[in-house]
Amino acid sequence: MALIDNIIGATGQWVAGTDPKATLATPLAWLRKTSGYAAVNRIIGLSIPFAPRNGFSVEEVTPGYVRAKIKLKGNKNHFGSMYAGAYFLVAEIPGGVLSLFDLGPAYTPILKEMTLQFMQPANSDVTVEFSLSPEQVTAILEEADTTGRAKFSLEGLLHDQEGNHVATSVAHYRVRKKGFKPAE
User: Fold this and answer.
1) Rounded to 5 degrees, what are φ and ψ at 42?
2) Max intra-chain CA distance, the chain
3) 50-63 burial, b if ≥16 CB within 10 A, otherwise e?
4) Which residues contact 32 (CB under 8 A, 6 or more apart)?
5) In the sheet where 56-62 sits, what is the strand order?
6) Are residues 45 and 52 in contact, defined by beta-carbon separation less than 8 angstroms?
7) Is-above-0.70 flag for pTM?
């Protein structure tokens, strides 16, 4: 297993054990949470340098759940609202994060298709949330372990800072199991 796979696996275990609601009232739990998210965002930045340069960050990741944000600063279009490419960035990367941390580094996520439906312009930072149920994770793992690959889809509602629904994304992924050899 490559070094990056070991780092992803260790980071996933670290973050899975954090309390996403931890505050400075519980300093050790808060430090564990913030350092875990910093590690996740650093891994993303090493893998996809374009993401942090454009203000993308994972704000919360727990088993079966991820919330990410992209900043308006540096991502404005010609009339001052969020650029369409920034919507795509914030809606695409969390699917990979979710699959890497929920399925594990032995599975490689691949985006096959994505659509965005724009509802209204965003004039602030934008967040998106995605989730996979334990049953969905189990089904994906079983199919990938049996056939070497599995398909799944994620739908995300993108919201601005005021809570307005600014876009909807639908992404279709395929995961491949690394080193898969069919049973004889």
Assistant:
1) -70, -40
2) 59
3) ebeebbbbbbbbbe
4) 14, 17, 18, 19, 22
5) 56-62, 65-70, 126-131, 149-160, 165-177, 107-118
6) yes
7) yes
> For 14-42, what is each residue's pLDDT tens digit?
676 677 777 777 767 766 667 777 777 78
The type of residue at 29 is: A
Q: Tokens representing 56?
A: 């993308």
* CB neighbourhood size of 39 (10 A): 17
How sure is the predictor about 166, in pLDDT bands with cuts at 50, 70 and 90? very high
What tens digit of pLDDT does each residue of 124-159 get? 999 999 999 999 999 999 999 999 999 999 999 999
| Nearest-angstrom CA–CA distance, 159 and 162 | 8
